[in-house]
Here is the input.
Amino acid sequence: MICISFTPPDELDISGTEQDLKAVFAQLNTLANGEETEVFIVADKNTNPAPYDEALNALIGRVTTGPTKVSVFDKNIEVIGSQASFVGFASFFSFDEGAAQGAHNHHEYYEGNPYVHPQSVPLIVSVRSAK
Here is the structure.
């Protein structure tokens, strides 16, 4: 099960085992390829979020229009964007077979990036070892 850790206003981390992250990748790809318009991915609420302040409940993905925008509300992450933007977003959950603990990807806006909304909360997706 993934863990989502957050320190307001903009420190956000999703971590999981390689297998956990592959499962998220697969679910997000259902948005990218048009099989689904919304996914709800439950996170481990009982995890110790340190060094972050709190553990969040879920990742909610919704197909809309435009670039990917990551927001935090009501103890959840909401990710909205076009099907095409979910292709890119899903790729941040894809790691090479046998990825080391601590391997990570940064999903964040930079000037001129047409795939990430300028107001998107920066997100780190990281591999952790199995408990």
